[in-house]
Amino acid sequence: MEPSLLQGGTEVVSNALKVSIAIPVYNEESIIEELLRRCLAVLDSLPSGPHEIVLVDDGSSDRTWALISHASALDGRIVGITLSRNFGHQAAIGAALDHTSGDFVVVMDGDLQDPPEAIPDLLAEAQKGFDVVYVVRVGRKENVWLRTCYSLFYRLITLLADLQLPMGAGDFAIMSRRVVDLVRQSPERQRYLRGLRTWYGFQQKGLEIERNARHSGRSKYSLRRLLRLAFDGVFAFSVVPIRLATAFGMLAVSCSVLFAVYSLIVKVFFGKSQSPEGFTALIFAITFLSGVQLLFLGVIGEYIGRIYEEVKQRPHYIVKQVIATRAKHGE
Question: 5-220+316-324 belongs to which CATH class?
Answer without folding.
Answer: alpha beta
